[in-house]
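Subject: Sanity check before I submit

Could someone independently write out the structure tokens for this chain? I want to compare against mine line by line before I put it in a report. The sequence has 511 residues.
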Amino acid sequence: MVVGSQIPGAPAGSNALVWSEGIIRAIGPAALVAREARPGIPVFELPGSVITAGFIDSHTHFAQWALKRRQVDLTGAANLADAIGRIAEGTPAQGWIRGQGWDANDWDDPPTRQVLDRLGSYPVFLDSLDVHTAWVNSAALGLAGITRDTPDPDGGRIVRDPAGEPTGVLLELAVDLVRRVLPEQDPDLLREALLRAQNAAHHLGITGIQDVEELSILDAFRRLEREGLLRLRVLFHPPVADLPRLIRDGFRSGEGSSWVTTGGVKLFLDGSLGSQTAWMLEPYEGTRDRGMPLASHEAAATAVRIAAEHGISSTVHAIGDAAVRRALDLLEAIPRAALPHRIEHFQCVDDADLDRAARAGIVLSMQPAHLLVDIPLAERHWGTRGRGAYAFKTLAGRGARLAFGSDAPVAPLDPRLGVFAAMDRRALGSSKDAAWYGEERMDFEAVVQAYTENPAIAAGWLPRLGILAPGAAADLVAWQVDPAVHRGEGQAFLDAVVRLTVVDGEIMVQS
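---
Independent answer below. Compare away.
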């Protein structure tokens, strides 16, 4: 039994709940709930805490995040010299130096293969912060067979110098030219990394994830489940490139166990704001560049139609307003499978498209924490079109189902950052009056719903998961948090402390 101060969404006066055998049995005022408690059960008295359903991160690359913890971390590197210093300290694994998190938007000197070549002979592969660009050295280019004569792949670009030589920077699907020659991940190392990452997620109040990765990662989650070690609820979205295999193997969205559920195929329509590859209706400010579509209309329409015909939902990446419109056009035209179709990110949206997702029953999987670093980029590259970016309150007000997540490792897994971003809409450390399009701020209860109930609906998990109610699974978190959060101050949640995390009735974190 856990007793706190408040349970958002529960009847007035509710501050306690009791569970047994992994199921919530009662919820309400502590005096009443105590009557339902069996003799001898532990009681957690946590005055001042807010009790919520376990947070469900609706968009992760969880294995990437888990493995990144073993790689060179370039997040926040202020300039090229800072990045090179970190890379120089990296330890090769399976013959490669790997890293992730660099962002050259504010660097004075560009990333090139030549500066990496000075560090040694090991091949180097460095994912950018948004994972839409890679920076590699000459050894990696050589292993991939990339030369000045290599054509750009469809949906990708090999950045070249004035002489036509590859610079070592690869955009979008050109990254796959090198990624395909990377050594396969050792299954035992992956298993260990996932277990450590699972523990870290529990300490952040996360009891479920919705993961977008290769099928080998689905196998890794299922291995943990067979071993009785998986304590995260997982909705898994495989890549659309595997659609023929999925159909052959009888893959259907919404199937699985109480731990692992099959989701929809992931299809990319464009790139990202950070790499200026998000596909726009009009050019980026001060340029003639509109980004790039990563799939033709015909190819994308065929993929989502075939998937739907075989009971598989679609999970479509769209960031620029042209990609968002294309995603809506595609998903409105196909029947729903067992799970709703989704658009991932849905960042920059034309006014004419703001209410279409609600009408079509499409889930909008959005990542509020991106806003913390995207504000200056959106101002610089999108100008007044930024008014339609991260329009949380408008979208929710028009009936859209918002499911919040992190996009880890692109952003930190920590949901406190997302709660702050959705509520305050300003950069960390900025003043309270610096809210970017402040009319789009959300209140705490609505943000909690976007991290709990709405992702559960997207995964077909409601009413078993995503809410606190008698009969639901005992997946819950007790947060020690400043009451100012209930007055609309998202800053208060940044310092929230997880006092208790329970998954399936099992105590995973207690502090």
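---
OP: Matches mine. For the report I'm noting this point. The CA atoms of residues 305 and 399 lie 25 Å apart.
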